[in-house]
């Protein structure tokens, strides 16, 4: 199989997207989109996958489908350049998943470390829904149906890519060589890979309630930054402070640049100078936090504006999803036809089949 540059990525619509998603992957998607170094780029709203652990709460998925679509559009994913589509509406994905299931063993599924830790976290140990255990197979279908070779994801998705490559190889060996072997592209910046929550815990996550959401209004962002975890031993302004593990500085590492200093805090040339002053003592948390608010607002305000536009024009949002999904289905249909042909189960489209049975019975 000849590889073309085809990028595919997706998100489960289980909540609004936050700054962790933004620096960990969304920003990079916009960069890739604008660099244009690809044949095709897909962004998928993985609602079927989200249902594998939310099967009893479909309303949650239904509500967040639009939230995620609004988040995509407001951060600048451009439907002219990127095919945004809804997983459950591409039936070809379900079809491919069913054939792929023959190519994996139960014990292989049970070894996936990401799934293993999710099973614990979701208390699925004693009653594990089969659909949840096999979601990596459905994810392999997400990727392989579109011949996608470049998959920008977080480190936790590596095991999915590993399983996808195994399924691809296995199919190619048994039937015909029609699938490529995709690889993950991880974020370069280590901190951005795992942005800590505002409470200082290792990861920004909805279930920990420590997120700044892309859709948060100005007042909320301000409140959240003001409550951020800093250095608990930095009590008086004169005290020397620590910047390691101080979340306000972690965020400045990720979000600020020299031009922010010029604009909002000209008494310092750059972040190094600010850190040095903090470590020496004599710099208060409030001043640093106020600076961070301005830095974040510069990023968030345009996103908010765009979101407001799309919230007023929901028909456009639906039209974008509908069009993207139709496009994905067309590509998917062609691939499924090739899959069935290579498996020899395309009976009615195959004149050889009629010839074969004729020869056998007449
Ligand atoms: N599992 C991914 C997540 O939880 C979402 C996802 C579904 C995905 N299908 C995909 C990511 C295909 C990349 C490619 O974030």
Number of strands: 5
Structural class: mainly alpha
Number of discrete domains: 2
What is the tally of helical segments? 17
Main sheet record: 3 strands, parallel
Q: What is the mean pLDDT?
A: 95
Q: Using only CA atoms, what is the Rg?
A: 24 Å
CATH architecture of the largest domain: 3-Layer(aba) Sandwich
Strand order of the largest sheet: 1-2-3
List bound small molecules: tryptophan
- From N to C, what is the helix and strand string? EHEHHEHHHHHEHEHHHHHHHH
Helix content range: 55-70%
Indicate the CATH topology of the largest domain: Rossmann fold
C-alpha termini separation: 39 Å
Q: Which stretches are low in confidence, meaning pLDDT under 50 for 5 or more residues running?
A: none
GO molecular function: ATP binding; tryptophan-tRNA ligase activity
Catalytic activity: tRNA(Trp) + L-tryptophan + ATP = L-tryptophyl-tRNA(Trp) + AMP + diphosphate + H(+)
Protein name: Tryptophan--tRNA ligase
Family: Belongs to the class-I aminoacyl-tRNA synthetase family.
Short description:
Its EC number is 6.1.1.2. With 362 residues, the chain is mainly α.
Annotation keywords:
single chain; 362 residues; mainly alpha; Rossmann fold; Tyrosyl-Transfer RNA Synthetase; 2 domains; 3-stranded parallel sheet; 17 helices; binds tryptophan; ATP binding; ATP-binding; EC 6.1.1.2; nucleotide-binding
